[in-house]
Write a structure and sequence with these properties.
It contains 13 helices and 12 strands. The chain has 402 residues and is of the alpha+beta class. It has 2 domains: 3-52 and 269-400, no CATH class; 83-255, no CATH class. The longest helix has 44 residues, at 262-305.
């Protein structure tokens, strides 16, 4: 029997039992929909973390304090700092691949100006900071190396600070007071908005790190060191050189620092979302398998119900392969239909998650194709046994079947 005729017979059989065909596909609809929704959530979280990391700069390496033993007590990443400005200057001086270096200090301070006050994050940085963080200035300019050397009382502010302290005014040239010390505003950073963790990136004041160290923090050590590699290809090489240099400067003491590059930071940030995505995908795959078993079960019932019909077709000249093909087509149509509806349901579910929960979602087109292909393969895999059973029926016994 020709393929076209066999397909017509298969579709006619499915139309006779529309509700049962739809219920048979329900398992696949749920499974495929769950796969699409899960993947969209996982990729959405990953893309948001990658965007956040990218917004922090390109080819950035960060040196954190920690990972040392003191008095029998081990401190992990982020422990008490022993990093110094000399460490940062050594990196800038001795590592050719480091095109930007910024010693960094962070504190929250109450800032006063214009008869108003605002609690914000005050960063001590070098003039390389905007370049390292890929953060251009909206107005003005960043402070200079001379300002760093002279511990100048100058500042670059974020848009949120400008809006809070200088509403409807140009802050350039005006002064803010930090710990009752006046700092002249020489520039304002472009707005970046909120990051992945809901923190306002524009709520900052950036001053020379020497001014922060001596005038604000009044402590001997810096909090971290930002290093920008010349290119992505040199990222790991520069990271290793920074590690080797700082280890050498410790003169045999156990390393009291941790060096992380941007890629490692992104991987650490996305590790939890990856784990959750894998667990949800496993659950979705189980749903697909259950859906496939449902197809096999209904197809076996269908073979039993249509035994006389199959016997009649075989008796009038149909070959076993024609019957096999007919039932395979029926199983594939049910599974492909279920897959298509499941994909649509998964896309709708993803949009609803974004609307009502606020989670970012991203649906890669390749996963839509994968889900569709898997549903077709499930139809073939789980439909083959019932189809083979139908094809092997003895025509005489089938005609006698009641």
């Amino acid at each position: 029997m020709r393929l076209f005729s066999t397909t017509k017979v298969s579709l006619r059989a499915l139309r006779r039992n529309k509700l049962r065909s739809l219920l048979t596909a329900l398992g696949l609809i749920i499974g495929v929909g769950a796969v699409i929704a899960t993947v969209s959530i996982g990729y959405g979280a990953k893309s948001q973390v990658e965007a956040l990391v990218a917004s922090l700069g390109q080819n950035v390496i960060t040196v954190f304090p920690g990972n040392f033993t003191s008095g029998g007590m081990r401190s992990g990443w982020g422990g008490a700092s022993s990093l110094t400005t000399d460490d940062a200057e050594a990196i800038a001086r001795e590592i050719p691949g480091a095109i930007g270096v910024s010693p960094e200090l962070r504190d929250r301070q109450q800032v006063l100006a214009n008869g108003l006050n605002w609690n914000t994050q005050v960063l001590g940085e070098s003039p390389d900071y905007p370049s390292i963080r890929s953060w251009p200035l909206a107005t003005g300019a960043v402070f200079s190396e001379q300002d760093v050397r002279s511990m100048a009382k100058v500042a670059v502010i974020g848009k949120t600070v400008a809006d809070q302290l200088f509403p409807n005014e140009d802050p350039l040239g005006k002064s803010i007071r930090i710990r009752n010390i006046p700092f002249k505003i020489v520039g304002m950073l472009e707005a970046k908005g909120f990051n992945l963790f809901g923190q306002d990136q524009d709520d900052i004041v950036v001053i020379p790190y020497t001014s922060h160290l001596r005038r604000i923090a009044r402590r001997p050590n810096i909090g971290s060191i930002l290093v920008q590699a010349r290119s992505a290809a040199e990222l790991y090489s520069v990271q290793q050189q920074v590690t080797d240099l700082l280890t050498q400067r410790r003169k045999g003491r156990e390393p009291d620092f941790t060096v992380r590059n941007q890629i490692e930071s992104a991987q650490m940030a996305t590790s939890t979302s990856k784990t959750m995505t894998v667990l949800l995908l496993i659950t979705s795959v189980v749903s697909l398998i259950v859906g496939g078993i449902g197809i096999m079960n209904i197809m076996l019932v269908s073979v039993t119900e249509r035994t006389r019909e199959i016997g009649t077709r075989l008796a009038v000249g149909a070959h076993g392969r024609d019957v096999l093909l007919q039932f395979l087509i029926e199983a594939m149509v049910v599974s492909v239909l279920g897959g298509a509806i499941g994909i649509a349901a998964g896309i709708v579910a993803s949009r609803l998650i974004t609307t009502f929960v606020g989670w970012p979602v991203l649906i890669p087109p390749v996963w839509i194709a994968i889900a569709f292909g898997i549903s077709a393969l499930i139809g073939v895999f789980f439909g083959y046994y019932p189809a083979r059973k139908a094809a092997q029926l003895d025509p005489i016994e089938a005609l006698r079947f009641e």
